[in-house]
Design a protein that fits this description.
heterotrimer; A alpha/beta; B alpha/beta; C alpha/beta; A: alpha/beta; Rossmann fold; 7-stranded mixed sheet; 5-stranded mixed sheet; 12 helices; about 45% helix; B: alpha/beta; 10 helices; 7 strands
Chain lengths: ~350, ~250, ~180
Amino acid sequence: MSKILLHGTEAICEGAIRNGCRAFFGYPITPQNEVPEYMSAVMPKIGGVFVQAESEVAAINMVYGAGGAGVRAMTSSSSPGISLKQEGISYIACARIPCVVVNIMRAGPGLGGILPAQGDYFQATKGGGHGDYHLLVLAPSSVQEACDFTYRAFDLADKYRVPVMILADGMIGQLMEPVELPPMRALSDIPKKDWATDGGYGENRRVLNSLIIKPEELEPHVNEMQRTYDEIAANEKMCEKFMTDDAEIVITAYGTVARICKSAAKTLRKQGIKAGVIRPITLYPFPSEAYEEAANGAKAFLTVELSLGQMVEDVRLSVNGKKPVYFYGRTGGNVMDEEEIVQAAKDALAKAELAKEV
Amino acid sequence: MAKVFQKTKMLTDAHLHYCPGCTHGIVHRLVAESIEELGLQDKAIGIAPVGCAVFAYDYFNCDMQEAAHGRAPAVATGIKRCLPDRLVFVYQGDGDLASIGMAETVHAAARGENITIIFINNSIYGMTGGQMAPTTLIGQKATTCQNGRDPAVNGYPIRVCELLATLDAPYYIERVSTHDVKHVLAAKKAIKKALRFQAEGRGYSFVEVLVSCPTNWHMKPIEALRFMAEETSKTFPLGVYRDKSEGRE
Amino acid sequence: MIRILLAGQGGQGVLSAGKMLAESGLWEGKEVSYLPAYGPEMRGGTANCSVIISDEEIASPLCNNPDVLIAMNGPSFHKFAPRVRSGGIVIVNGSLSDCYAGRDDISVYDIAANDIAMQAGDIRSANNVILGALCQITHIVKDKSIINCLNEKFVGKPALMEINARAFELGKAAVESGGER
């Protein structure tokens, strides 16, 4: 084991590079500037492409071009910049171009603030841009995961021909932790793409397009996309369960917030309250089965987010009314501490007791 | 019987959807012929815009990507940077290139991307039904300036060649027209030159082609060609704005 | 597990001292995390970071109530001393701060880091003076680990390596000679 201390942003870059990412297009926005900075330094050394685009809009469309040409391509940004990319992401999803988009979330709405937040859950998991499509969304909670998930994101993107999003909060971007880097993958080891527009004439020509103007053609196309999402849902759901087997209160959160929840769960256990944590790793597809299962034993659920309550809707859909689901959130770039979650969990249990009596 | 004409194989057999009298089709042919004559058809990757030429991916007989509105130069940048030995050409109209996509246009030019942009200027939004374009002439009527473009309200037309010629990076910038045979032949020369420069790795090449829109100008085709000769080319003077191969900076 | 909050002014080496600590912990095979505070304040003004060193997996990377506060100047001392957990430790740079925390449930060590650093040969080694004091008080990482990490960072600059080592030793000695208030 040889671990090195890395920033979350560096880990994301290394995860990408080590799994064949050879094109990066970015635009400065805090708190993800270290990603384009790192890529600008490394890409030229490994025969890759780095362009500082004129805007987030241009950057995502460069990804469209590079991804469409068959190269593993990535862009990164933070919340307001990700909003600008939504048009491009929708086109990429429809044209079935694999790519990876990193969102190091900051506080919104609007220009908001630059501190950590999780207010882009809806945008990431429910579509974001126009039309019927989804991103496959991975939420790392450590620097190691930031590296590993970005690495994996490229394989998932290629396998299903979908855009994959790494959804991280500002803390992941700044955090330094020990990381064991995966080995550098040879480009020759990456499966060839028989659909890429890399120069072909006549019978060999290929077209990448998101304009399908005939309704009798567009409907089958989006149905085919949906079949891919169903397949992804069947194969790729991931979550971490932490002390949930006997939990009376199940706390649930994603990203770094889940780590604070784990600390809180440990503290609650010391105080005699059986607490556990479910941490969704894929936010889309949402690991609903974990909640269905936990609902059998738990008295209540508590969703904790750096937002006013977004993932809580998916938790409620998953628990499906079997048990009460409560919410605790902070916004504006403020991060809750362990004690706040401990108190919120106790409150949730008390409310659940009251609700039973009514 | 001797064969006197053959359609270039760089165009598919798909029927063009352009309106009767529109000179878009001519430009398609000029681009396609030029690529074939340069022997670059196996290396060509084209980018279609949003606008009248949105279906260009059905007509050019090579790999094609359809870009979002205005973003074609960014898409082309992504492709060309990854595959520098391919011939990447971009085909855009005036709304796409000079309105919504102006940032992408200017920055791809400023970076000196080794790509070729074919800019179709018909001074109107054709596909959406004749709205004012950034290149609509002063006094010219459109559905969103029904009494004619009034500079006090609508501002002035944008001269893209002149604007891009203020940048250091572009290698070749020329404005040509399609209003008569002589000018069509000149346009072909310019387009072929632009593509050749790219193949030679010289950098950004840009050809603005004045095109008629009889449908939305509400003119007969011949009238529209005359309008181009007499009016359009007054606002948009034809000529070479940059040619580094001839030392024209 | 020990949670350390390092705070001071931009340019005092607060962030690099934090990284050095985390590197040293990693070098010893421990779990570590390093979280710098970022924001408008990172441009000039104050700088702070949280370092956690632990034998087990680190859950929350936050340090809202640190076990140890390192305060490199007065404003940082007064801002963060109230947050130190009861029974915790504060090491304050006495060259740039008073050391009255207004509470008696924490141990405050007054280390005149700037003065000692100048004695060591370079005022910029004040952060290493404090690291020396920290190691002497808490033994959170071995002296050798810190020195190794420092030498790795300043490889090829033997003069600086020497100054840093001296600053570290003088920081340790300052604790011995009665830094605690």
